[in-house]
Amino acid sequence: WYIIAQQQLSIFIEQVGALRETLSLTDPINEAEDEYSPTGPPMSPLTASYFFFWAMCDLSPKGNGETLASATLDVVREIGTSPHLFAAMEALERSRMGLWVHQGVEGDRVLLRELVTDEERRCAVPSGYRGAAGEVWFARVLPPGAPGLDAVVMTTPYRLVGTTPAQ
């Protein structure tokens, strides 16, 4: 469900981002894209999934918390969409990167524990990286989209090498 929400949010963002009223939000993204997402050597260590979420959901050029995603959701709220789709897009917009400790694998899911909140989540990892117990990941993990579903690691996880969580 989150993948569909991300695709739809991306389409809405592209339309809203073309408006003159959002230039203060899009200009810094364009500058950062040139710097951090080059198409050729040298390659950036940032993954496309990380950059997308940072640029759309985290970057607040005015420092007031407004992002391109939050501005876009204001427009989408006015024009209307499926309540379930809107809720999923809001979850994407409210999400954040976090530090997660890999607790092991259960079937095709990865068990993660967030270092700050101690919250544990059973996660689908669309990037396919399953990792190993004890690894520390920097990733954007979204909560289950509905009862009975698993959480989703929306970004390719960055594995923090040479780190161990404090006991």
Structure description:
The structure is a single chain. This protein is α+β, with helices and mostly antiparallel strands and 167 residues long. The chain is 39% helix and 20% strand. It is built from five helices and six strands. A five-stranded mixed barrel has the order 1-2-3-5-4. A hairpin with an 8-residue loop joins β4 and β5 (151-153). α1 crosses α4. The longest helix is centred in the N-terminal third of the chain and has 16 residues, at 2-17. The model has no long low-confidence stretch (mean pLDDT 85).
Task: List its salient traits.
167 residues, 20% strand, alpha+beta
Instruction: Name the poorly predicted regions.
Output: none
Helix content: 25-40%
Order of strands across the biggest sheet?
A: 1-2-3-5-4
- The percent range for strand residues is 15-25%
Shape: globular
What is the gyration radius calculated from CA atoms? 17 Å
SSE string, helices as H and strands as E: HHHHHEEEEEE
What value does the average pLDDT take? 85
Number of beta strands? 6
Sketch the major β-sheet. Answer: 5 strands, mixed, barrel
Label the structural class. alpha+beta
- End-to-end Cα distance: 35 Å
- How many helical elements? 5
